[in-house]
């Protein structure tokens, strides 16, 4: 049996749970138990996603993965910063002088053709002595002005391609000082092409290089191995057929960086300059060799909109002057042992935890140079699990940056800083964005269904286009779960074979997880709060923190992925006090009695249940207010003394004497019109006052949990209930989705915040109950599985 050409790398213990940063290449490496998640800050300040999969040795320079970036037709090129129009004018400066050797001759031909294509009149083309070699090869015959313009474009394209082919051949022949047996065939082909090159240098016709030989050489060149790297690991796992990286040519084989070559290195300001003191030769060689492409071509870790990336963005911001452009650049980062817990959202959102021995965290700071708006991307990686936790913090500075201001004069940039320095409106904020290299057969896995029929695993083959899994119901819902996975495995063997990348948003409200496949086959997944119901006002000096998204990788199918999610949530999300504890076997009164409950009936049911081994009796609907059916009393959380003359403490006492535990049902987010609470506080409901229209689903309305007074009321009632007796289980139900969502105590411009503020209010009450009653087990039931998130 042939030896595996890709030897397996086992992640050593010292790397697990570590975050490494290479200052020379500005590359971040997050190592899990057996995985690597990696990205870098490129020379333009973008965060370029490199790799997520089985662990790779840290000495591998993963920048070479960017060699799969190929500029597409009509895609914008690299963006840059400039102080005034001088930088643009420099790009259109006169061409370089006549060159002597073949490479420089092609360089001049390309530059001349480019200038005719972008700046000169078509009538001047005939005056340029274009080599007949190029014209004959392309079948170019000068004719009308339109024909001549087209000829110029063709000359530009042909010269550029021939020049790059020349560079690759020269580079590979220079590096191939010694060949292994398996490389002899490649070197023979290179030698053959070198002979053809010598003929061309001597003045022979360029067309002497047959097209099929050129194509063959290009394929062979891309397979040669570099003596300074070990690319076989990442190459075998990050690229599909036909997507093979090309190794960098020497630095001196490229045109000088004098600002005259459009599409090459920019004269603009770099937001991520190479740190001082780092050797420049190797770093500049790499950076110059990487394809200089626009954002729509790159794999990104965080993506803005409107600056060349036409895929779904990671965020969207609106300024007071109506603008929406927010190009971000890398500013800095911090690496910390342990989990960095939430700050702005502390106590408002659920979050995972982890000590210094369990995990390590990274915060990458991105900022808009003009407005100072800052995005902190927070990562946590665990040493015993192949999981990465991500969330995003957006910060609006108290004062706008002053670097654009020039004493004694007003520039367009300084004026714009003043008009964008106030409140920002965040219309979209993802918790995580991940871009994937092209895969041969990507399959998407989602969990969908309906009430009492939740979470059926659905798989589909992804082609060019977008698929969205979302909820706009105010809950994660029965219909969709905030989960998505991408796999390279076959549908028949998903459980145990194939690479799987899973995403789970830790959030119980409106969510969106979307997957888009571009024309290249590259895939982007975004996960976060649903932007269709989200508009957040961010005043100067304020910040907003997103929910967390859990990213899990498995190389052995979805079974291993599921085990990782389960272990992670058991150890680092569910409260420590419940770890390893088996929940009691319980019997609920609903199916046995519906609303017709009483002290005696419940006690008799408990005795029968106890005789067959049931450990807990749960008192469901019908115990409170004047509740006889579904039309009344929701919101009146005190016992009906007609049914329970000794109150709940008397019933709980009798159940406990049987050796059983006691639990109780509530639906705190709802209210009936026929209730004492509604009569007293009708404005506490989600409904626009003055509009005589509303949906009373299930004969009930939804309380506005974004209101502090609603939160305080529910906390007070449930605290009294749980403190009055030995209640050990609380079933928090939620049987009606949100409609007519309008906050009557929130200003008009902040109505887009109500959905999220509602969910934060629910979490706040649940946190209060957990802190106040740590021994009470709380189940967030929602019609069964409507909040299984």
Structural key phrases:
789 residues; alpha+beta; 10-stranded antiparallel beta sheet; 27 strands; 21% strand
Brief sketch in words of this structure:
With about 800 residues, the chain is an alpha+beta fold.
Can you give a write-up of this model?
The structure is a single chain. With 789 residues, the protein is of the alpha+beta class. The chain is built from 16 helices and 27 strands. The strands form five sheets. Strands 6, 7, 8, 9, 11, 12, 14, 15, 19 and 20 form a ten-stranded antiparallel sheet that branches. Strand 22 (616-619), helix 13 and strand 23 form a beta-alpha-beta unit. Helix 4 packs across helix 5, helix 12 runs parallel beside helix 13 and helix 15 (708-723) packs parallel to helix 16 (754-772).
């Amino acid at each position: 049996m042939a030896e595996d050409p890709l030897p397996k790398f086992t992640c050593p213990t010292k790397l697990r749970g570590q975050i490494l940063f290479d200052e020379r290449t500005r590359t971040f490496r997050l190592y899990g138990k057996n995985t690597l998640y990696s990205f870098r800050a490129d020379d333009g300040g973008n965060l370029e996603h490199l790799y997520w999969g089985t662990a790779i040795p840290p000495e591998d320079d993963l920048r070479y993965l960017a060699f799969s970036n190929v500029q597409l037709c009509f895609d914008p090129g690299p963006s840059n910063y400039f102080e005034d129009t001088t930088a643009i004018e420099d790009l259109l400066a006169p061409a370089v002088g006549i060159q002597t050797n073949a490479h420089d001759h092609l360089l001049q031909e390309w530059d001349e053709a480019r200038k005719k294509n972008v700046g000169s009149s078509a009538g001047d083309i005939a005056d340029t002595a274009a080599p007949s070699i190029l014209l004959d090869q392309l079948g170019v015959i000068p004719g009308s002005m339109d024909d001549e313009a087209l000829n110029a474009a063709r000359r530009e394209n042909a010269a550029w391609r021939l020049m790059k082919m020349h560079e690759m051949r020269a580079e590979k022949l220079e590096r191939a000082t010694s060949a292994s047996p398996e490389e002899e065939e490649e070197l023979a082909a290179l030698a053959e092409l070198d002979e053809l090159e010598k003929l061309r240098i001597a003045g022979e016709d360029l067309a002497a290089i047959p097209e099929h030989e050129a194509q063959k050489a290009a394929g062979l060149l891309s397979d040669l191995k570099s003596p300074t790297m070990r690319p076989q690991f990442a190459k075998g796992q990050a690229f599909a057929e036909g997507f093979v990286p090309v190794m960098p040519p020497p630095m001196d084989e490229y045109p000088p960086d004098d600002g005259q070559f459009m599409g090459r290195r920019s004269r603009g300001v770099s937001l991520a300059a190479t740190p001082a003191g780092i050797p420049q030769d190797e770093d500049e060689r790499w950076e110059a060799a990487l394809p200089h492409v626009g954002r729509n071509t790159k794999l990104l870790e965080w993506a803005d909109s409107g600056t060349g990336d036409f895929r779904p963005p990671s965020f969207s911001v609106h300024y007071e002057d109506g603008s929406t452009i927010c190009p971000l650049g890398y500013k800095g980062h911090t690496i910390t042992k342990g989990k960095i817990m939430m700050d702005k959202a502390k106590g408002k959102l659920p979050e995972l935890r982890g000590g210094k021995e369990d995990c390590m965290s990274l915060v990458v700071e991105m900022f808009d140079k003009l407005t100072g708006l800052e995005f902190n991307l927070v990562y946590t990686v665990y040493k015993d699990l192949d999981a990465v936790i991500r969330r995003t913090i957006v910060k609006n500075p108290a004062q706008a940056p002053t670097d654009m201001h020039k004493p004694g004069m007003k520039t367009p940039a300084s004026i714009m800083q003043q008009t964008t320095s106030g409140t920002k409106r965040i219309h979209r904020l993802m918790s995580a964005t991940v871009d994937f290299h092209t895969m041969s057969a990507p399959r998407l896995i989602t969990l969908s269904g309906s009430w009492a029929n939740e979470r059926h695993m659905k798989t589909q083959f992804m082609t060019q286009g977008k698929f969205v899994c979302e909820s706009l119901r105010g809950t994660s819902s029965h219909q969709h779960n905030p989960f998505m996975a991408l796999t390279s495995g076959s549908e028949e063997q998903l459980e145990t074979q194939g690479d799987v990348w899973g995403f789970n948003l830790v959030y119980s409200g409106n969510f969106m997880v979307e997957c888009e496949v571009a024309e290249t086959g590259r895939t982007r997944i975004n996960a976060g709060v649903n932007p269709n119901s989200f508009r957040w006002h961010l005043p100067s000096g304020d910040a907003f923190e997103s929910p967390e998204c859990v990213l899990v990788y498995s190389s052995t199918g979805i079974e291993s992925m599921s085990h990782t999610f389960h272990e992670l949530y058991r150890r680092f999300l569910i409260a420590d006090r419940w770890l390893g504890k088996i929940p009691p076997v319980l019997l609920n009164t609903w199916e046995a009695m519906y609303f017709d409950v009483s002290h005696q009936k419940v006690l008799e049911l408990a005795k029968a249940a106890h005789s067959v081994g049931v450990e807990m009796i749960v008192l469901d609907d019908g115990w409170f207010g004047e509740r006889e059916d579904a039309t009344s009393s929701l919101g009146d959380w005190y016992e009906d003394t007609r049914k329970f003359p000794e109150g709940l403490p008397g019933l709980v006492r009798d159940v406990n004497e049987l050796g059983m535990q006691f639990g109780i049902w509530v639906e705190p987010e709802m209210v009936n019109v026929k209730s004492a609470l509604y009569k007293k506080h009708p404005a506490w409901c989600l409904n626009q006052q003055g509009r005589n229209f509303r949906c009373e689903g299930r004969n009930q309305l939804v309380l506005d949990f974004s209101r502090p007074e609603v939160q305080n009321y529910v906390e007070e009632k449930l605290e009294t209930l749980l403190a009055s007796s030995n209640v050990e289980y609380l079933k928090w139900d939620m049987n009606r989705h949100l409609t007519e969502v309008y906050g009557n105590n929130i200003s008009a411009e902040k109505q887009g915040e109500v959905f999220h503020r509602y969910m934060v209010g629910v979490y706040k009450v649940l946190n209060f109950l957990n802190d106040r009653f740590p021994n009470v087990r709380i189940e967030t039931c929602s019609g069964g599985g409507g909040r299984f998130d």
